[in-house]
Amino acid sequence: MAVRTVVRKWGNSLGVVIPSEEVSREGLKENDEVEIVIRKAVDIRQLFGKYKLRDLQSAKDELREGWH
Prior knowledge:
alpha+beta; 2 strands
């Protein structure tokens, strides 16, 4: 399950808060050991304009080829 949260400063370290919905779903309690995969979230809006497209229709047609 992927969860998006914000990294916050705690003393000299950084930490994240696990949302209560995930705590309930996983049955977590204090001092449980968890595994966290860390990957910086990408804001799709940052990609806008980064890649040149021949034209929008050609790009959509190319993407749809893999849908069959």
